[in-house]
Specification:
This protein is of the alpha+beta class and about 80 residues long. The protein has 2 helices and 6 strands; from the N terminus they run ββαββαββ. The protein has a single domain, classed as Alpha-Beta Plaits, CATH 3.30.70.20. Bound molecules: iron/sulfur cluster.
Length: about 80
């Protein structure tokens, strides 16, 4: 195992306007509730979805989506990057 930094997705529900653009751009990680507000299906972003997640966060008109790195030193099995 190699220690890596994982990337997490955060949603600010106070800032979000609930128009659902993020769920259209990133359906793998974001769904909409009955009122059209996003629900994160997972917070840890798989490596193959990092670029799409960055695009979804950049496209949010309210800047309610942010990516953050988890603290260093956490080992992730099977990861070599
Ligand atoms: S794109 Fe931004 S403002 Fe729109 S629903 Fe998603 S998080 Fe909320």
């Amino acid at each position: 195992m190699v220690p890596v930094r994982a990337t997490r997705l955060r949603l600010d529900p106070i800032t979000c306007d609930g128009h659902g653009l993020c769920a259209e751009l990133l359906p793998e990680l974001i769904a909409l509730d009955d009122w059209g507000y996003p629900v994160l299906l997972a917070t840890e972003i798989p490596p193959h979805l990092r670029a799409a997640t960055r695009r979804a966060a950049a496209a949010c008109p309210k800047l309610a989506l942010t990516l953050e790195r988890t603290p260093a030193g956490r080992a992730v099995p099977g990861r070599t990057d």
